[in-house]
Amino acid sequence: MAAQNEIALRVDSVGVCFKQKKGFFQKSDFWAIENVSFDILHGETLGVVGRNGVGKSTLLKVMTGIIAPDRGHVYTYDNNVSLLGLAVGFNQNLSGRDNAIMNALLQGVSKKHIENKLDEIEDFAELKGFFEQPVNTYSTGMRARLRFAIAIQVNPDILLIDEALGVGDASFSKKSAKVIKDRILMGQTAMIVSHHVDTLNELCNRVVWLDSGKTKMIGATEEVLDHYKKAPIV
Question: How many other β-carbons are positioned within 10 Å of the β-carbon of residue 137?
Answer without folding.
Answer: 11
